[in-house]
Amino acid sequence: MRGRRFSPLKGREVSGAVMSLFEENAAILAALKAEGHDLARPRAVDFSHLFDDRASADTFALAAQGQGFSMRVESYEPEPGRWDVTASRVMEPSCRNITDVEAQLSEFAGRHGGCSDGWGFFDA
């Protein structure tokens, strides 16, 4: 069973204020810590991306793998014909680390025709 996915909706409005990606990730991590998750030790953090075709998904996966990420490409069940590509890396799950990697991968996915679809601890 896969763990929860946290969707980074950069610029999401909360109570009339727009949250940055960093602020949203900080809020998610604070909630996880309050639930008792150990965020002090390195662990696999999984970053999901959606693509409209398999070729783009595979190209992104191969390129990200070359940057040291473990990759998984799967059909995206909620939307047939789309592809879910998960890039995983063991890291300290700090807000700065997650936000930096998320922004890097989001920009990289965009260059390959994809978009970010959140992050999580899917094997937790």
From TrEMBL:
Source taxon at top rank: Bacteria
SUPFAM superfamilies: Hypothetical protein VC0424
Start and end residues of each Regulator of ribonuclease activity B domain: 23-120
Classification via InterPro entries: RraB-like_sf (IPR036701), RraB_dom (IPR009671)
Pfam families: RraB
Official protein name in the record: Ribonuclease E inhibitor RraB
Organism: Stakelama tenebrarum
Taxonomic classification: Bacteria, Pseudomonadati, Pseudomonadota, Alphaproteobacteria, Sphingomonadales
